[in-house]
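Thread amino acids onto this structure.
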């Protein structure tokens, strides 16, 4: 609740479900990650406004760093995150859903996150 207040997220705006549907979690085969790229941006070079290489930083420290970096960006700008921690593929989408930021691309270890509109 504290994090929601700090992020400015109203309780009504929170998603009803924070995890993928049953059958995806724990399955042997992981679904292919979707990459959304603007039509005027080549797929090999997704557009982004800032880069951050978090290396193997753990989830707690990483989300605090993400929060600070995204707060310093303008709404709609995109951050390219490189993170090698094994939990990031599951933790980052949940964090984005909780905070209202958009996870544009998730191809471990590179992620594109668009800052929410406030």
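Threaded sequence (118 positions):
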């Amino acid at each position: 609740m504290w994090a929601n207040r700090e992020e400015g997220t109203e309780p009504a705006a929170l998603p009803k479900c924070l995890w993928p549907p049953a059958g995806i979690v724990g399955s042997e085969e992981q679904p292919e990650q979707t990459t959304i790229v603007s039509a005027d941006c080549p797929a090999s070079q997704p557009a982004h406004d800032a880069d951050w290489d978090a290396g193997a930083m753990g989830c707690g420290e990483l989300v605090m760093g993400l929060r600070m970096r995204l707060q310093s960006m303008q709404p709609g700008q995109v951050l390219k995150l490189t993170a090698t921690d094994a939990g990031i593929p599951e933790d980052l989408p949940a964090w984005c859903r909780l905070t209202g930021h958009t996870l544009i691309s998730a191809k471990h270890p590179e992620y594109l996150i668009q800052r929410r509109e406030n």
